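TA notes. Do not distribute before section.
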Amino acid sequence: MRYFLHIGYNGYNYRGWQRQHKVLSIQEVLETNLSKLLKTKITCLGCGRTDAQVHASQYFFHMDVEKEWTFDLKFRLNKMLSEDIALFDIIPVEGYPHAQLSATSRTYNYYIHTYKDPFLFYLSAYYPLEELDFEKMSAAVKLLVGNNDFCAFCKSPDKNPSNICKISSAQLFTNKTKDKIRFQITSNRFLKGMVRIIVNKLIDVGTGELTVEEFESFLTLKSTPKTIIPAYPQGLYLSKVTYPFLNIPAKVDFSNSIDNKWIKV
């Protein structure tokens, strides 16, 4: 029987989702604890790879179990997991849909605070930016929507059969005092490092280091620039994953916890 497990995690203490040698990952923690509880080797296949220190307010993985358990697995697993990983739902699915390959869209949010705030440490990216041109940043964001080649916004484009992504939504928000920023983007797929690289370029547009026209030119490049700098990882959240058979809201919404009066730019 295949199950989809709906989780969320603060990724700051982990080297990303994927299991890696001699470093702590979300996948390793879940596989280890599920294997103990179910007394059999469990493999967790996730909906995507999040980088080191990146968060997920909604994340799905699937696992196959031959014999159904007879206890409250959700309760026991949450007791075993540290406070930075939470299991929300265990969902039986028909057939064998894949947590990564069956997803039709994903949404990421990236959060920035522009003043030093000890309560946002680990949870948002600190950029001490006093003046930003939000009008130009918004113009650049609008250029992202549609089918575009994101080769210039990828750490390793040569490893992909295609670098075309269909962006269905891209929006920029700020709060009333304009000292917090949220960038939200939804696509059918994302490339390695893509959202963080886009955010760094948007910051360059906002500070005047890059024009909107220069930003647009990156969407026509067929190779990676010599220097690409991703934005800090702790500002990035995988926020929504949608399937043809599964479309449920996230249990947690970090945007409300830091400022519930976002204004679209």
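Switch to the second chain here.
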Amino acid sequence: MTSPNAVHHIAISTADMKSQIAFFTDVLGMSLTGLFWMHGVPNAWHAFLAMGEASFSFVFIPGNEGKDTVMGQTHAGTGAGSSAPGTMQHIALNVDTMEDLLNMRDRIRSRGVPVFGPLDHGLCHSIYFAGPEHLTLEVATTDCVEHPLDSEGTWIDQEVVDLAGISPRELQSFIHPAEFEGQSGGVEQPDYDATKPHLGYPKEVYPSMLKMSDAEFRTRPEDREPPGLSKTK
């Protein structure tokens, strides 16, 4: 099936790159693997931290520091808090075993950061804590659970299905998505359709961008060379 098979990276805006890197390396033990200018974005830079085979990324773009955090709007504040549609409610990081989860709790607490749990959710065990700039964070494991997530409807509540307005036919299509056979990149860019999601590019340039060929979207050759290698030459 043509579908994603893992998280490549999660990107979070920051106004304090150093504090975020310090927290995620010291408190969570994630190693810094990249810190460089953001390709194609003037005066912006980002960091990558290792998270198993995936990465956790922070992005600093000038102007971030002037934006306000408003609990209940921009940030949820807790795993049970609300935030505006499309914003991050919380992020859950994975560990493999219950022992790993308890050791992670020890590590977080040893850095002076309060953490609650584990809570047994049936599908996973989770601990909860906060990160810099009011991030709401979770670490979870599926170790020692009786009923893990599956595609058999085990964790689908018909009452919630009804609240979401999902019909029986739609539910089955969601559980078992249609197969898709790609054309190795041969499908053309669609015309503008206001009913579809769109990136937030300026309206004066977006129509022209949609008419550009795929070959015109390129990174600069120098962007593809790691900065640490170029300095050793």
